[in-house]
Design the sequence.
């Protein structure tokens, strides 16, 4: 078979696994087989578990199965087996047999490229140090550390990709932003979202040239170049004739911004129109520039995997989240309370409850579970300004969330009169809601009550699961009160009630 020639290509990390929570869910399933030899039998087992949990949903299914997946209820073994057999895969990936083995590779390819798990037919499945860190459920803040570690090393021209582009996108982004911010002609807000496609198509690691190209673009077209102008520049960089590929303008930049935000190193400015360096993480940015501008050329997938999967403890130690992350301040939160009208906050929360996407430039690049924590904090402060709202998510220098709170903290703490109200939010609705949320909510509340703090918890989700309700009813015997509210009910009550206590009754 003739080997395909390398080309210049725009950067898109993956089309199949864009959500880090979804990636972690998939990896959690595969982690059960860490250390085992990858056979077709194991691939089938993994596929069936993913189907059973509704993480992978083939098209040919019954209405009953569809209903269970919609409500996040696991399938029975019989149902799982039938879905698996009714949906043979025709997919083919290089090095993998046609069918489920190739489908397996599409699921986990990005995880391998980012150094989380190594796999190959008839070889040992091996989770790296960073892959194991990512799956540590007690430390959700590890996600930020792991992605900062991976993207500091991620090369466009790596053995997993046949491209001519040669740079480390994160470093190219940092260097370009620094040049723009240091230019007195500009207002120090970083790179425009509309300029990001140029970086995604850039051929090399020459940030100075990219900066000059952007400067030329701004001089001629300001901050609002037309789509056609950007596409023409991109096609020139890609050595392509014009084609219909508006993904370069939309999906690709959005995916890139999301991925870069996962590192905690970048902030959104100007209502989401600009991407800039997060000043809270200057130490990490400087460390990366000092240690990763020069990078090795690695020719085999395994060597590259070992390189990117190794945790740089010195890099991680520079991140603010490593020890004691700085809380989101009242001023930072109030800034966004003033930025968003109540109707916008309400609509966005109801959209999350209904699994609808956001059109807002800022909110759409914040992962949905984290977005719910952010919006819930804004909603309470917007309608109940006398309540002291203390979210525990990790935020950038604009007060926008970049990572979840550490596992030992509730999502949001609210002080009302003499009560400490612990707000816990989730988008999970089925079996996983109980498994992943009930015990942590219980633990957080118990710790506050033990300290002598007058506290109760409020658990907010699109829809509570029966086992969750039973569990919270059960712990009442220990004097622990967890109030349950659906997102729509919570939002509606905020519009009519005067106190958080009344809202959550």
Sequence:
């Amino acid at each position: 078979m003739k080997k395909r020639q390398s080309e210049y290509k725009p950067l898109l990390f993956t089309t199949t696994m864009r959500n880090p929570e979804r990636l972690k869910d998939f990896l959690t399933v595969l982690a059960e087989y860490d250390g085992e030899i990858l056979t077709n039998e194991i691939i089938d087992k993994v596929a069936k578990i993913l189907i059973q949990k509704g993480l992978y949903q083939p098209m040919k299914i019954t209405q009953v199965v569809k209903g269970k997946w919609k409500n996040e209820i696991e399938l029975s073994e019989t149902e799982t087996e039938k879905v698996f057999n009714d949906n043979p895969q025709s997919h083919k990936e290089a090095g993998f047999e046609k069918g489920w083995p190739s489908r397996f590779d599409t699921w986990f390819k990005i995880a391998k490229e980012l150094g989380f798990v190594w796999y190959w037919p008839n070889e040992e499945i091996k989770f790296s140090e960073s892959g194991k860190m990512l799956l540590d459920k007690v430390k959700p803040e590890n996600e930020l550390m792991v992605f900062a570690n991976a993207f500091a090393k991620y090369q466009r021209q790596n053995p997993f990709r046949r491209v001519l582009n040669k740079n480390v996108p994160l470093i190219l982004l940092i260097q370009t932003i620094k040049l723009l911010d240091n230019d007195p002609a500009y207002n120090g807000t970083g790179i425009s979202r509309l300029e990001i496609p140029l970086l995604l198509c850039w051929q090399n690691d020459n940030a100075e040239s990219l900066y000059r190209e952007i400067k030329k673009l701004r001089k001629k077209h300001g901050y609002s170049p037309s789509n056609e102008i950007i596409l023409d520049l991109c096609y020139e960089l890609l050595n392509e004739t014009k084609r219909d590929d508006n993904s370069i303008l939309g999906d690709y930049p959005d995916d890139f911004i999301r991925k870069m935000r996962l590192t905690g190193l970048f902030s959104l400015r100007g209502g989401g129109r600009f991407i800039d360096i997060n000043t809270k993480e200057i130490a990490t940015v400087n460390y990366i520039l000092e240690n990763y501008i020069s990078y090795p050329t690695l020719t085999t997938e395994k060597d590259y995997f070992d390189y990117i999967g190794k945790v740089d403890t010195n890099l991680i130690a520079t991140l603010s989240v490593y020890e004691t992350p700085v809380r989101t301040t009242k001023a930072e939160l109030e800034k966004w309370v003033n930025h968003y009208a109540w109707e916008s906050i309400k609509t966005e929360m109801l959209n999350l409850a209904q699994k609808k996407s956001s059109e807002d430039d800022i909110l759409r690049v914040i992962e949905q579970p984290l977005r719910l924590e952010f919006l819930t904090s804004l909603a309470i402060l917007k309608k109940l300004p006398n309540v002291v709202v203390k979210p525990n998510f990790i935020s950038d220098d604009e007060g926008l969330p970049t990572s979840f709170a550490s596992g030992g903290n509730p999502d949001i703490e609210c002080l009302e009169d003499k009560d400490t109200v612990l707000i816990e939010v989730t988008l999970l609705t089925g079996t996983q809601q109980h498994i992943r949320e009930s015990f942590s909510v219980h633990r957080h509340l118990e710790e506050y009550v033990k300290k002598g703090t007058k506290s109760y918890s409020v658990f907010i989700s699109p829809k509570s699961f029966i086992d969750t309700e039973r569990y919270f009813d059960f712990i009442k015997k220990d004097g622990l009160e967890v109030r349950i509210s659906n997102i729509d009910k919570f939002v509606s009550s905020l519009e009519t009630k005067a106190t958080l206590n009344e809202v959550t009754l």
